[in-house]
Amino acid sequence: MKKLKRGIKPLFFIAWRIFIEIFSLVNKSYIYLQRKLHYKAVGRDVRCQATLFLIRYNSKQHTMSAQLNNTAVAPAEQIISQILTAWNTNNSRMQAFFNKYEDAAYQAEVAPGRSRAIYLFGHLIASADGLLPLLGLGNSLYPQLEKLFLTNPDRTFDDIPSLVELKGYWDNVNSALTANFNKMQVQDWLSRHTKVSEEDFAKEPHRNKLNVLLSRTSHISYHMGQLVFLNKKEPAL
């Protein structure tokens, strides 16, 4: 009996040490991401160590007790919630921008020799539409936009959808994404996206659905940074 007690005691301290280390890492990653999200609706560095830690934690801790696994659930949910908030905030900013001026204003280039504003709008819609198949949520609603706005530069085609049509596409794509995002749990966000194999995902668990959303959120911020250089017109009445 004494030998058994002597054997259990070191195991108890090891397990307790592991618990403390994991809790500390989760807490640090959560605080770090909170600070990043405080400055500009998701900066370009927001897909950072918090996400990588959560993915590695999720993939390597299968043998730990339910009690230890549950310690990461609440912080993970909060981080995902903040990322979704940043995604929605960027979408709202973009929608407000494309409702601000007369339609003709968006035919202008954001800078000499650069893309027109309407092209960037179509580009972001096509990118968002591509999230549906990439995240395993269904087929793209408007696959024709890929050729017009993703794989070819501006002015490749003379005939592109009007601003009114693009706004309709934008509303439908975001409604579909929001409906799916609201159903997703932590384990769904940390699972692999459809462009990575199971073998590769085992080696690179950061290639998951949450990281894709982080990337696309930063993508919107990048192009909004271009759109602010559009020659200002008087706001539409």
Task: Describe the structure concisely for a colleague.
The protein is mostly helical and 237 residues long. It has a single domain, classed as dinb family like domain (Four Helix Bundle (Hemerythrin (Met), subunit A), Up-down Bundle), CATH 1.20.120.450.
Describe the structure.
With 237 residues, the chain is an all-alpha fold. The chain has helices at residues 2-38, 49-60, 66-70, 73-97, 117-129, 131-134, 144-149, 163-181, 186-189, 198-203, 209-227. It is globular, with a radius of gyration of 22 Å. Helix 1 packs antiparallel against helix 2 (49-60) and helix 1 packs parallel to helix 4. 63% of the residues lie in helices and 0% in strands. It has eleven helices and no strands. Residues 30-69 have low confidence and may be disordered. The protein has one domain (2-60, 67-227): Four Helix Bundle (Hemerythrin (Met), subunit A) (Up-down Bundle).
